[in-house]
Structures are given as structure tokens and as C-alpha cells.
Specification:
The protein is mostly beta strands and 87 residues long. It has a single domain (22-86), classed as Sandwich (Immunoglobulin-like), CATH 2.60.40. It is built from two helices and six strands, in the order ααββββββ. Strands 1-2-6-5-4-3 form a six-stranded antiparallel sheet, with no helix packed on it. The longest helix is centred in the N-terminal third of the chain and has 8 residues, at 3-10. It is elongated, with a radius of gyration of 14 Å. The two termini are 21 Å apart.
Length: 87
Amino acid sequence: MDVKQRFSDAFDIPEEIVLDVPAIKIVSNNKIIIENHKGIIEYGKTNVRINSKIGIVALKGDNFVIKYITQEEILLEGEIELVEFIK
């Protein structure tokens, strides 16, 4: 266990904050929020690929729309069929 992990555990701070890893929240099959992203690699109606510290978060589905994007967070809506992590 590295220092950052021990710090997170000792002070009960969420890992995604200390380790800068993505936090993903899926609401039903039509909304996804991705925190701690490193930018969008690909964006289309049926495919979205988002860069993160641990690799690429790939989404497949239909009618994807970016509702908002900030440096910390992305909100996508559409019909989510698959969420995949690629190293």
C-alpha cells in the first residue's frame, strides 16, 4: 500500500480525491457522471472515450449528448449499453 492510499485510509478521505482516479456514477441506463477525468478522446452519437489516470473509460450506446463538462466532471446522457475500462 502506497503513502497516498494509507493517507486516504487513515483520514477517511475518498480514494478518488487523494489518488486522482475516476469516480463514475451511473443513473439508470441513460445518465453517467464521470469525475476526475483527463479529457475526451472520442465523442460521437454511439461511442465516447474519456481519458483518466487509470486508462480509458469507453462508453457504447446511442444518442450520447454531453450535458455539461468541467475540468473535474462530465455529465453524459443517452442510452448506455456498455461501460468498459481500457488500460
